[in-house]
Specification:
It comes from Arthrobacter sp. Chr15. Pfam families: adh_short_C2. 43% of the residues are buried. This protein is of the alpha/beta class and 238 residues long. The chain is globular. A 7-stranded parallel sheet has the order 3-2-1-4-5-6-7, sandwiched between helices. Helix 1 packs across helix 7 and helix 2 runs parallel beside helix 3.
Length: 238
């Protein structure tokens, strides 16, 4: 770690430029954390230490963690929120789309967890939260690559907890339901109405509500290896 050690806890939010990631970075900032957030050139909210990082570029995440260490000297929480979605039927799915989704959503998460374990292991404490999706259980026609990549996070966490736990590190998955983000803005109105109808709360989540869950889960000191749906009840009663 660097010579300077922040007196405040430090959180790194990977994928912090918009939507759930931006709301999460802002929530940690509000709670008194020093927050670093990665982006792919679009920048981050004022008050957050921005790090330009494409998680699919070899070595990019390693460099991001190194920058956090050099600037703040500690790392308490890592949130992996980077994600992309593509839409196509399985029989027409292009290799490049499959590769893009897997590299961002799953392989990037692997790299982030590896780096987090290295840095947090030195301190003997830390919390990692990966952002999955309710669709990893329910499935979405035309999104086999997306749902498979998100389901892979569940397996990653269930194995990684055994390596993380003895080092004092907790690792969990949050699986949001439909949330008001740019990704959801692409959904047709009729499909959106159908999603609302599947929720006992009869509405879609705000990014801040998901961020609230992520923050609280990250602080629970006896929770690890858990897959936590934050869906407004969608998919839980079927």
């Amino acid at each position: 770690m660097g010579k300077f050690i922040s007196e405040s806890p430090v959180a790194l939010v990977i994928g912090a430029s918009r939507g759930i990631g931006q709301a999460t970075a802002e929530r940690f900032l509000k709670e008194g954390y020093v927050v670093a957030g990665t982006h792919r050139g679009s920048g981050v909210t004022n008050g957050i230490h921005g790090i330009e990082c494409d998680v699919t570029t070899p070595g990019a995440l390693k460099a991001a963690f190194k920058e956090v260490a050099a600037n703040f000297g500690r790392l308490d929480t890592v949130i992996y929120n980077a994600g992309v979605a593509r839409q196509d039927l399985l029989v027409r799915m292009r290799d490049e789309d499959l590769r893009s989704v897997m590299e961002t959503n799953l392989f990037g998460a692997f790299a982030a967890v590896q780096e987090a374990l290295r840095y947090m292991g030195r301190a003997g404490a830390g919390s990692i939260v990966l952002i999955s999706s309710e669709s990893s259980r329910a499935g979405i026609p035309g999104s086999a690559h997306y749902t498979s990549s998100k389901a892979g996070l569940d397996g990653l966490v269930r194995s990684a907890m055994w390596e993380a736990g003895p080092r004092g590190i907790r690792i969990n998955v949050v699986a949001p339901g439909p949330t008001k983000t740019d990704m959801l803005a692409q959904v047709e109105d009729a499909d959106l109405d159908a999603l609302v109808g599947k929720s006992p709360l009869r509405r879609i989540a705000e990014p801040e509500e998901i961020a609230d869950a992520i923050f609280k889960i990250s602080t629970l000191t006896y929770l690890t290896g858990a897959l936590i749906p934050v869906t407004g009840g969608e998919g839980l009663g079927y």
